[in-house]
């Protein structure tokens, strides 16, 4: 584990550790095991073990390889569930990195525009139309990170409700998408 | 299995089957097992078995539940790999649903704008900066689906190269992201 205040250049995965402007390791820019190591949650050897395990799990049988490739398999195009999970991951992560305070006018306009276009081109038509209507009736709140994170969480809950899924308690949005669960 | 030309309203999952404007089942709007069933790839009973297996795999131990929830667990925020996978899934799927021929000027402008803003707000700064530079030097090609799909595949390969990953053979982009592997 690291001593308090100690920083490292290279993580257990061999990748360079990326720090945010405030000097803290950036969660969404590093591998999970590297991040756990540089934030002192796990030892270097534990990180290396975890990395080699996840690499082993990722390797697949060679039956279904794409012709001419040694690594790419014949994965089918995403279905509606995979597409939904992927897109929410990206959208919540974008909210999590939105300026904490006082985004510029350009940053506010770009986020609003991005969500609006997203609702036009999302590759499931009925999902897109529903999201477009939601945005029309509930303008994205882009005055700061907390506002946008809450807005995104509520937009996601609107979809959860439509799909008969339980509501996520938005009081936990920051732990789920920004800080993780073991920090105060 | 279905007879040729037969259509169904409700899939084995209990969800309504969504069809594209051309009358074919929409891959990115349906669950994978429903799609496999309505396209005649698997029987109804096989689809139901697959669905119940994936539901079982998705259920988790209750140790790590979010306070007050019976289903949501303390999942950590996405790391750089999960964020990358999710974002590429969404971007390729968007290319896969882009108009095959003659997108309108608005559709072309929106796709270009979306990718440009994406390169500003992607929640990993160094990844975003690299993608911004790539877009500046390689304008997105938005004259039809095939062009955009190839452009996206090449943009992804640019990142694969940076990360030391093998190149994906872009001749297969349509099978990977639009049609799947068992159709001609």
TrEMBL record, chains A, B:
Ranges where the ERV/ALR sulfhydryl oxidase domain occurs: 76-177
Keywords, sorted A to Z: Disulfide bond, FAD, Flavoprotein, Mitochondrion, Oxidoreductase
Domain of life: Eukaryota
Location of the protein in the cell: Mitochondrion intermembrane space
One Pfam family recorded for the sequence: Evr1_Alr
Cofactor requirement: FAD
InterPro entries (alphabetical): ALR/ERV (IPR039799), ERV/ALR_sulphydryl_oxid_sf (IPR036774), ERV/ALR_sulphydryl_oxidase (IPR017905)
Protein EC: 1.8.3.2
GO CC field: mitochondrial intermembrane space
Catalytic reaction annotation: 2 R'C(R)SH + O2 = R'C(R)S-S(R)CR' + H2O2
Keyword Flavoprotein in annotation: yes
GO MF term list: flavin adenine dinucleotide binding; flavin-dependent sulfhydryl oxidase activity
PROSITE patterns per record: ERV_ALR
Protein's UniProt name: Sulfhydryl oxidase
Native source organism of the sequence: Maudiozyma exigua (Yeast)
Gene name for this UniProt entry: ERV1_2
